Structure formats: structure tokens, C-alpha cells
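Troubleshooting log. The previous structure file for this entry was overwritten by mistake, so regenerating from the original sequence record. Sequence copied from the archived sheet and checked twice against the printout by T.R.
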Amino acid sequence: MKKISLLIVICLIKILDINYLYASSIIFGDQNKISISNMVEKVLPSVVNIYVEGSKKSKNFIPKEFKHFFEPELFNRNNNKYKQFEGLGSGVIINSKKGYIVTNNHVVNGANLIKVQLYDGREFNAKLIGCDEQTDLALLRIFSFNDLVEIKIADSDNIRIGDFVIAIGNPFGLGQTVTSGIISALGRSGLNIDGLENFIQTDASINKGNSGGPLINLNGELIGINTAILAPNGGNIGIGFAIPSNIVTNLSKQIINYGEVKRGQLGIRGTELNFDIAQALNINIRQGAFVNEVITGSAADKSGIKAGDIIISINNKPIKSFSELRVKIGITSPGETIKLGILRNNKIKFFSVILDSSISSVSGKNILYPLLKGAKFKNYKSSNGLVGIIVENVTDDSPASYIGLKKDDIIIGINKDKVYNINQFKKVLESKNSSVIALNIVRGENKIFILLK
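Regenerated output below.
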């Protein structure tokens, strides 16, 4: 009995020792309570509130299916109207010397005016430097500032399920608010959010207005940008999602350096490796990306990757799913060499792949002229020498579709200036001070002008 009592006492001492070490690594408050206040106080000045104003096209109150029952004038009555909107969100300073701030693309999407409020109450008009719809990230910049505080950024590849995290933001416009929780899951996808999905899931409370704000670890380092919640009834139920900091760092650097996001392209079609595929192939692994098809002439094809291969790693780091592979490739620049681990015929092989170029997400259009929102462009050069930028796609009911821009239009000039490529297109737009911009367009065999005003 004495031995049992002694064992219990020793165990209690060990538990108390562990709790003391954990608590002292943070801080004890005046009332002997664990507190993270010192860490939070250092981080708060790097977090900003964002307020936006803009205009969005009104939705037609008559469904398209019933268009033929109505006069064209009545059906199109709302198509030419834009409604004013106001929005709010959060952001975080990542470069205090140059005034760069990261937030979500959906926070500033369509905004004509972006205001940033610092922790000390100072307000600045912000410029949208670039955005990426695929990852829902946007980069802002403020000017004529001093004494900014930037956040430290952690390696999100090192975070683990169960880590304690803090979310900071501006929920419902209340002002900076701090909530806490843990990392509930990693690599979340399939959330019906357009683009690349590889989210951190957390139960830290996130609400409207938190979007774009930081998710941080207990060292006060950025591990993610809060972007979405699962809210069946419109409120927080403890399921929030954040974009990993490594994606934020990579894409921010690209936007700063190039004004756009340049994505590498592997050139495969694939799916998640599930139980049925594993059983059919008689393999024991359950994680990876199954290659359904290899595009002829692509980077994957040139490197020897084949349909039926299972990609299990990239640069010696395990790949759990096809969604994760898409994100890893999508944030890697074209021309970079990656090392893929492939399972083929129950043997692991390694392939070096030089990624091809894919369509860049060009944000200069959206920054300079909101009426170009909804159109995707890429550089164009025909065999007969026609040079410009081609409209690869136009989203229905977008400002670009409203002004009459169409798929396969080729922009060859702005006013009297010729357009040769996307970067030069952006520079020409930046240099125009007139209230009306005329786009010179080749459409089929015709040349037309579309006015932006």
C-alpha cells in the first residue's frame, strides 16, 4: 500500500512539473493564471482592420430560363445597374519597411476604395498590388507611414494537429478581437471553394470580418491567413479554415517581384488515391495522388511519368492527396525543378521534373480597372505575326462581360498605344490619366473598340 501511495505521489509531482514548465514557457499572471497576454501584445500592432467600398453588378430578378417570356427591355433592366457595397475584413503586415499587407482576395474583390486602420488608430488608403483568386490571397500596400510592425512568419509545414493557435481579426467590425483554439486538421479540401484547397482547420472562433486576419502559434508567428468558416446556420460552429503561411509567403513574393502569380504546370490529370484504387492495384499505401492521364508533351510526359503512377512525395516530402499535389505544384514557379517520388509496380522511383508555364493570375487588370474583373488573359502571338493579349475566359455576369469583352478577343492596343504582352498592358494602363480608355480589339476578322469609363 505504501508503494502504491508513493507511486501516486511521484506521478502527481511529474504532472505538476510538466504543467509548470508549460505554463512558465508562456507567462503566469498576477493571480497565478496561465496567460498569453505578452505574446498577443507584441502581435496586435501587426494586425490591421480593412474597410472597403465598391460596386457590383445587380443580379437579374428574372431567371434566364424565363427570358423568352419577357420583353428584352424588361429582362435586361437590371443588367446595366451596379449596386454600391461596403465590406470589412482583416489583414496582417508582412513587410514593415515597404508597407505590404496580406489579406483575402474576397475581402477586396471589386473594391474601388480600400482603407486600412492600424492598431493605434491611424488610417491609410491602400493600393491593391496583386491578388490570386485560386488561393484567395491579396497583397495591399500603404505609403507615407512610419513605425509599422510586421509579423514573424513560421514554416507551416512544421505545424501539427493539436497545436494551440490564436486567431485575430475584426469580427462584425467590433475591432481587433483575439480568440483561441487548436489545429483540428490539416490539408482540408473539397469545401466547394473555387481554386486550390489545402487548408488548416481550426476551432478558434472565426466570424465575418475575421477574413484575412492571422492565425498564429504560441510564439506569435504567422501560420495561416483565416479565410472561411463552415456555417450551416450563418454563425460560428467551431470549424474555420486558414491558408497555410508557406503558401502566403510564396505567392506574396511572386506578386511583389512580378506583379502576378506564375504557376508551374506538371501536365497530368489525376485523382485521390482511395481504397478502391489501392485494392485494384494490390498496394498497401492509402495516401498519394493517382495519375489518370499524362498530357502529351507536358513536363510530366517529358520526365517519364505515366498513367497509373502514384505520386507519393515532392522534394522528399510526403504527398497525402491529389489536392495537396495541386497546391504544391500551383505555388511553384515555372522553370523550377522538382523531385517526385513515384510508386510504380510496387517499386518507388524518383523523377526530376522541370515545370512548364501555366496561365498567370494577372491582377493588374483588376487593380487599375474594375470593369476588367472577370476576364482572364494570357500573352498571344499568332503565326502571321499578330501580337497582343488574348481573352481566355470571361465569367458570366462579371463587369468584363457587361462591357462586352468576349472569349478569344485579342487586345492589341490601348488608345494609341500598342499592347505586346500582359506586363506592358499593365504599365500602359497605369500611365493613362484620361477618364475614358479605349481597348483596340481583334475579334475574328474584325477590329473593334471597347470603352472603359
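The longest strand covers residues 82-95. Archived copy saved in two places this time.
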